[in-house]
Elongation factor G
Amino acid sequence: MSRSTRIERYRNIGIMAHIDAGKTTLTERVLFFTGRIHATGEVHDGTTELDWLPQEKKRGITITSAATTAFWTPTHGRAAGTPHRVNILDTPGHVDFTIEVERSLRVLDGAVAVFDASQGVEPQSEAVWRQADRYGVPRIAFLNKMDKVGADFDMSVTSIEERLGARPVAVQLPLGEGPEFRGLVDLVRMRAVLFEGEEGRYLDDQPVPPEAREQAELYRQRLIEAAADVDAGVLEKFVEGRLDEVTAEDLERALRAGTLSRTLVPVLCGSAFKKKGVQMLLDAIVNYLPAPSDLPSVEGCVPGKEERVSRPASDAGPPAALAFKLMNDKAVGSIVFLRVYSGTLRAGTVLLNPVTGKRERVGRLMFMHANRREEVAEVYAGDICAALGLKGVRTGDTLSDPEAPVVLESLGVMEPVVQLAVEARSPAELTKLEEGLHRLAAEDPSLRVGVDPESGQVLLSGMGELHLEVVVDRLLTEYGVEARVGQPKVAYRDTLRRKVRQEYRHVRQTGGPGQYAHVVLDVGPAPRGAGLVFVDDTRGGSIPKELVPAIQ
Ligand code: GDP
């Protein structure tokens, strides 16, 4: 396969949703139908393959974004018969973890937005949608739970339009809703799919049932109207009233262009739980969402210079990759998830982390499948992979060729909003607490850890109560530290101001806040908990504007 063909057959996608919309179930089904797992675990049994952390099983929610590789060969559409590689990043739905969502959005090329068809757009779907807008992520929508009593296709489509300000375009029509949900009309081809049982079997390419014909005609007309807005060929046929001449190929071409330019959001529906409509969704992912090569080149800057550079999604040229997720694994140690933007990255080579100025040897490279890991010698532009052996890399860092250093645009880190004080129960546990917090903060840029110089308390700042609760949980389950938790003794704002002051001093010492300054802040030793040293990190000169007067 030529290099350009290979990258055109990649889809790096995320599945984003309000909690409980069925994202985990859908991801499971996608992995089931892509042949990577053969027994689907239900979320409530705590057996889903993507959930890695024990507390995820306990809570039944997905917190981390695990990247999984699968393969799909569409039955219909422009890519019919051609195998594609679909890398799926599972994104958390709880609003406390929006930073995790942002992180995955940064490295995705497209997304499936999942909605509960009985609810339509819910508040958290709005938050996630806006984040995806900010990162310019092309999307398709999947109205899940069509089997549920109260499922309402029209209401859900309208809510996408009204509440998200998007232009949803139904490309399917459900045959029946709730317990009556028995099939779909593919409006592009004007053929029906009839489900057979709950094991994902269906009769393809059926005539549209007579009772659904009128409604299907109406929806197809709307589809043609939307397509005419983005495609000159369809527009011509539309204005001349030659609607019968609009072909499936015409509509597919227009839908792809409209999705890529983010003017349209194709809407599909189904029931992840009952394995209905998932294969058609996979076809749509491949047919409508972009390959890495469809998107503009990634931008970055040359460290120490004003110069901005762009790196095309091509295997040739110097490698550049972004670390978007860190995980600790009992068996293999620290795992760094990388999105390779350009070049070829080989196991065993030394790369530069221009953010820290350190060189790092890439030990091993692997693809994570749902049920196994696949070790590979090299990875290419467009790949999402896991790297082992990297020591000083933090979330948001770039790894690049030492001869052609680049710092890729990093991840937006929001200001923490909630703070908690933690204390070790004994001096012996203090070291473990330090180590645990150090690692957790390296994984998660939205977690800040510091010591209040006056009270000596270790303070955790995060995105929400659940976020910090999970941190405390992980201290216990992964590091065996039962931390005592309380409210901070000082006002959060004061602590932040003090911390910023120290960071600022440090930036000054290291020669001014560069656009990608990486600030390591040593706030210890603290009066209590002597020797507690913590590292904080500021990227993009992110000293909050409102605090600038306070630190001058
Ligand atoms: P997440 O929070 O978005 O990951 O949602 P989950 O996949 O954990 O699903 C939330 C709940 O909805 C679980 O109890 C699922 O079994 C249920 N669920 C998921 N998909 C469907 C569906 O298509 N139909 C119905 N009726 N229930 C579903």
Summary: Residues 210-228 form the longest helix (19 residues). The first strand starts at residue 10 and ends at 17. Residues 475 and 499 are 24 Å apart (CA to CA).
